[in-house]
Amino acid sequence: SSILAAHTSSKSDSSGVSNSGESSKESSRCSTPVLDADRTDRLRDKMKRRIESGDRWFSLEFFPPRTAPGAVNLISRFDRMGSGGPLFIDVTWHPAGDPGSDKETSSMMIASTAVNYCGLESVLHLTCCNQTKEKITAHLNKAKRLGLKNIMALRGDPIGKDWVEEDGGFNYATDLVKHIRCEFDDYFDICVAGYPTGHPEAESYEDDLRHLKEKVDAGAHFIITQLFFRAETFLKFVKDCRAIGITCPILPGIFPIQGYHSLRQLVKLSKLEVPEEIMQVIEPIKDNDAAIRNYGIQQAVEMCKVLLASGEVPGLHFYTLNREVATMEVLRQLGLWAEDPRRPLPWAVSAHPKRKVEDVRPIFWASRPKSYIYRTQDWDDFPNGRWGNSSSPAFGELTDYYLFYLKSKSPKEALLQMWGEELMNEESVYEVFTNYITSQTNRNGHKVMCLPWNDDPLAPETNLLKDELEKVNRRGVLTINSQPNINGKPSSDPIVGWGPAGGYVFQKAYLEFFTSSENVTALLQVLKKYEPRVNYHIVNVQGRNTTNAHDMQPNAVTWGIFPGREIIQPTVVDPVSFMYWKDEAFALWIEQWAKLYEDESPSRMIIQYIHDNYFLVNLVDNDFPLDSCLWQVIEDMFTLLDSPPETQKD
Amino acid sequence: SSILAAHTSSKSDSSGVSNSGESSKESSRCSTPVLDADRTDRLRDKMKRRIESGDRWFSLEFFPPRTAPGAVNLISRFDRMGSGGPLFIDVTWHPAGDPGSDKETSSMMIASTAVNYCGLESVLHLTCCNQTKEKITAHLNKAKRLGLKNIMALRGDPIGKDWVEEDGGFNYATDLVKHIRCEFDDYFDICVAGYPTGHPEAESYEDDLRHLKEKVDAGAHFIITQLFFRAETFLKFVKDCRAIGITCPILPGIFPIQGYHSLRQLVKLSKLEVPEEIMQVIEPIKDNDAAIRNYGIQQAVEMCKVLLASGEVPGLHFYTLNREVATMEVLRQLGLWAEDPRRPLPWAVSAHPKRKVEDVRPIFWASRPKSYIYRTQDWDDFPNGRWGNSSSPAFGELTDYYLFYLKSKSPKEALLQMWGEELMNEESVYEVFTNYITSQTNRNGHKVMCLPWNDDPLAPETNLLKDELEKVNRRGVLTINSQPNINGKPSSDPIVGWGPAGGYVFQKAYLEFFTSSENVTALLQVLKKYEPRVNYHIVNVQGRNTTNAHDMQPNAVTWGIFPGREIIQPTVVDPVSFMYWKDEAFALWIEQWAKLYEDESPSRMIIQYIHDNYFLVNLVDNDFPLDSCLWQVIEDMFTLLDSPPETQKD
User: Fold this and answer.
1) PANTHER family of this UniProt entry (chains A, B) (predicted)?
2) Does the CB of A516 have a partner CB in chain B at under 8 Å?
3) Cα–Cα distance, B419 to B430 (Å, whole number)
4) Is the full-model pTM beyond 0.90?
5) Which of B2, B8, B375 to mutate to test the interface with A (most CBs of A within 10 A)?
6) Which residues contact A268 (CB under 8 A, 6 or more apart)?
7) Are strands B250-254 and B315-319 parallel, antiparallel or unpaired?
């Protein structure tokens, strides 16, 4: 039975499963059903696996923004560009810009945001020139604490002309690489820079190659090159690197030309020469931005095709200049932009190493994942498999910082246009909600693109419920979160699918809304008819909580069944965390909406009234194989409200 | 909104959910989705809840068996009678019989078995007369260690006639109650005996009532009475107890008369008088056992009806004399016998307090739950929610004790009749498996009621697969475990349902079998076509393991979705524990089957050959909404085997 023998040996070696009771006694069991295998590994391992499988990747470079609104914009860009599936992003480091500080515009905080809030594997640049050992170590410790795992080790530009080497100081990137490996052992993955045409300050191309070899030998894991304009420049460089024994991955730095002036400036800074054939095309169209961008895209695509075809290039690194159109277009044309719009989980994953096992969250934060990540950032353990396995999760406070940092992407003027310069009454508010649902323009001609609880337009999944949602919002059932019931759709479903191939996803119908106390009184009457099919929690801003659910037992409302895995239940309705969410949900009325208006203004008082008097309600229909009964519940509530008073008492 | 106010206050008080972030910071989260709320509570709490809800219960008394086979029988009886839903059972204590020892016939071990292996809430009797404090404490410590939580505190019969009270010794049950409360605080629930007609040695009925009051005041939680023959005897006793301030539950001891001689003996021992009206019926039929038993059933039913109708009796306690027919019949006629044949979980629950959160197990032990419980008895934590959350579970060794203790219920002669006095070849073995599946008589006229891996006839669920199983066993695919795929049947389904009402249960199709290495060679060829739909593990006795599954990730094969709960996934195919199961599954060939035959006999050598050369295979069809493809896999394997050799290589 030779076939069998071949099969047997091929698998048994790698399985590591012992056949006796002894050896696995000490082995630490890791049976976490991690959905995305990439989440657990180090960047070098991910690269290794991709190289082995021939699966090409791309990465994206950004620089830190100058202003706080710029930071908000960049984070939105991370989300959009993250959906294309970069293997990692990197954030540059400019010593003059206080890059290691806690300011939301610092390199450190931008990289941390990318990891923690946008779920992106990130590389933080770090320069060492003119820095003390203590300062460098402090930066690295802070990076580690924030969940950063990768450093691009650079010398950086010396400040002033009369810079000379310091004995025992950080004179070259090699010193920094050595320091990182010495102080942090194997913790960080380290990237270093390569210069396809030699470093401008190097004595020679060969001398520069030797320096690169030193950096790699000191412990760097991969190389990203400076930009270049011809594929052969890079390919020769790789060949020369291999010849002197550099074996790690070498990633070409791709710079899609996006404008005449940015090209000139970059070339000047990097002391590169633009090839004649490119200048000849560009000069005649230098005042036509669109033409130059189109040329830049075409030129980058052609060069990348040559690079990829060479077999020497496992991944492409893009200098984005913090813009997205050109890079995305190049990647689309190369077929590297991920076309799978499905979520890895029904919420945004964080790339912080602490959170690698996290796979369940309360549904309440479905539209505010960054807020959830922020409020749980101090947790030591994250629920894995079942909500509440981690002991005593306590949510972080609602601080001003949080309210600033995660505030709406839209400026105040836009919000006023969407939500009304002036509110007349509660119905004006109902209208805002209804317009958000229908995405029709309001009476001032503006589309309502967001609400305080939803910074983005309606999810495709929620769109399935649009007609029903419109109907109830119009009557003052102000919905802020909902999902349809799903009874075993393929995990590949473009609207409700998530997770690995070959699986099935399920949901219980969920509806969460603010509504008046009169409505709640009727609703509670009506809900008696729906016991035990419907679970509810009803709470006002003071925390008066009415529920028919178990005090401590969460209700799984989203789950998936996948080949060869345990069940994943990413979202739950959890009674304990609902009380924390309640504080946040009510606070958003005031912080994001009421404060748009003058103190004591009627508009502000209307929002304040709603905040003070409305209830926050959530409903789960447990009978997921049947059509959701939640719309009927609301319908029954309105019927009861419309009926003569004496019938309301029964 | 008065309706609202009423609702709000009624629930918010009991919820204990805080509305601020602070108070739950320290609170230990308990979000275990325990299926049977009874599993977590103390016996006194269960009684309290049942009394409040008016839900009457019954309990069953057994005495320890004299012989090891008697112990095996009694454990089977626990399983059968446990399915009727007793609130608890109790095991008597006879100082002369070494009741605290480790022998499988001791009171201690029988009670421990009932708790740990049969999942029954159990009360261990303990007598104190002529015992040292140290000995008593040692017994109690041992009981606690074994997972026992309830003690029936008794004085016991003094040994010898010249017994006198010892100063500071255990002269009365009260002393024992005090000692338990003193040494073990509130750990044990304590039961004491009541004598409806007064203790035979008491000075008076009133004096005896005062003693009972002392026992309760010392810390007993409930009372079980000595047997009696008239309902009014008990009802007067309860009234008298209440009158002197005894408020705890008082359970009547019911003795269905089962035979003339056992009645005479019992009456003599307990110094009770049998009422004239009973003797008048019994004397004329004293040689007709059936007639007496029928009378006993009828008499007990009548008396119990009066007791239950009185409103004074929350539960009935039965002196079973280790027999089941009479008591079960009385309970059926009273409507107290649980008619729900569904499993609480798809495996036997243990009542050990350590295991109260356990809700997932490897499917391999589905037919051998006691073995699983035995082999995991030293675990400190049990998987809850997800398999492998508890760190490094190591399975206990296969010891002789284990092989004895959990051996077949059938004696050697019966096994030989079922499995063959003499085996001719491997096909003889196939026939045994096939006869087990079809439950037809074999060529010697005996039904095969069990196999080494299945001590009971085919489960109703497996019966659904009978025709397919017969077909493959006939050809040497020797199945030992299987389940059909289930795509969302109601949890109330009589065959595949389990868990709370209103839920839905699911399964992936599973098939586990032994088969020859030739078959496995073909199977591995065939399985390539079924990637990634089918996961497999294939292993021989040496542990050569071939699999296409992740090394460490379990595959959930049974799960349930219930109102207001997290997902429950009670069974998984776990790669690590499969290696432990493999040892057990192969050992059963030898220990239970081969050893029936003489050393060196052809029959023994046939079993030994299978043991040495066959493979153990498990298959999971991940695509649970579709018809199982596992039969097609086996079919394809046979087709390949039947095809000319050259086509087998493709």
Assistant:
1) METHYLENETETRAHYDROFOLATE REDUCTASE, METHYLENETETRAHYDROFOLATE REDUCTASE (NADPH)
2) no
3) 10
4) no
5) B8
6) none
7) parallel
